Amino acid sequence: MKRVLVIIVTYNGMRWLERCLSSVISSEVEKSVFVVDNDSTDGSADWIQGHFPGVKLVRSAENLGFTKANNLGFEWALSHNYDYVYLLNQDAWLAPGALETLVDAAEKHPEYAVLSPLQMTDGYKAYDAQFGKIYNAGGNAPVVQVGRVMAAHWLVKVEALRVIGMFSDIFPYYGQDDDWCNRACYHGWKIGIIPQAKAVHDRAQRKETKERIIDRNYRVGSMVRLCDINRPLWERFIFVVLFTFVKSVKYFSLKPFKDFFGICKILPELVSLRDIHKNNYGSSRRT
């Protein structure tokens, strides 16, 4: 039986933890649960330790962010010879049988680095808003291939992780999943969705300021595009220039221009990152 390490990063997520953890524990796959608590102040870590003592709990003395915390789990999976990693947001949970379905699909379709269930709202009545933008129902297809999928629910093949590498620190909170999917595609792996598996990503009540939306959609989105090793850098840069004007008009804000100059300052770092992702694992590309 294949071994799965379920990685959950927590930060003040008490209202979701019971459903999140219980949905994993009740699955019948051979799994371990690895939780990194990012210095929560709502008692999350103590609650997990008291209610789920079998969980491997890492208590961070600071908020490491999404990337560094998940990378701790990736390192654990690599060093302990797991076959798969399942990334699960604290505000997310699996429908009964979903993890079993995903692992079974991964075994039948080994060319996929990442498989995601249908990511839905609480109650399974609609797709998560962001998920709905990338998913087109594929009829009865067992796997629907996509270019990317958000990492609230990711079944990752550890074999692919060894080739592609872990999340990039340059994306501490957002963008790391899109960047990783781009790198996976470059190295010959596929990204897919399993329509027969369902799960919830419960973010319907989340409110964001305009500045944060611009930061995620424009600044981080631009950095992801510049790091995309599937496209020439000059093409990506021209796109970002045009993207700056479009987003400034859309949001009626000068922030995209300020962010653009900030991105230009770190462009050498982004170029270096592109080279690392191209060359470090180039001999292991799938064909």
Strand content: 15-25%
CATH architecture of the largest domain: Alpha-Beta Complex
CATH superfamily of the largest domain: Spore Coat Polysaccharide Biosynthesis Protein SpsA, Chain A
Q: What are the low-pLDDT stretches, counting only 5+ consecutive residues below 50?
A: none
Overall number of domains: 2
CATH topology of the largest domain: Spore Coat Polysaccharide Biosynthesis Protein SpsA, Chain A
CA radius of gyration: 19 Å
Q: Write down the CATH class of the largest domain.
A: Alpha Beta
**Structure classification:** alpha/beta
Report, as a whole number of angstroms, the end-to-end distance: 27 Å
Number of helices: 11
Number of strands: 9
Q: Which sheet architecture does the biggest sheet show? A: 9 strands, mixed
Percent of residues in helices? 40-55%
Look at the structure and give the mean pLDDT.
94
Q: Which H/E pattern describes the elements? A: EHEHEHEEHEHEEHHEHHHH
Structure characterization notes:
This protein has 287 residues and is of the alpha/beta class. The chain has 2 domains: 3-201, Spore Coat Polysaccharide Biosynthesis Protein SpsA, Chain A (Alpha-Beta Complex); 210-284. The chain is 45% helix and 20% strand. The chain has helices at 14-25, 44-51, 65-79, 98-108, 129-132, 158-164, 176-186, 210-227, 233-251, 255-265, 267-279, and strands at residues 3-10, 30-37, 56-59, 84-89, 92-94, 112-120, 144-146, 153-157, 190-201. Strands 1, 2, 3, 4, 5, 6, 7, 8 and 9 form a 9-stranded mixed β-sheet that branches. Helix 8 (210-227) packs antiparallel against helix 9 (233-251), helix 8 packs parallel to helix 10 (255-265) and helix 9 runs antiparallel to helix 10. The longest helix has 19 residues, at 233-251. The model has no long low-confidence stretch (mean pLDDT 94).
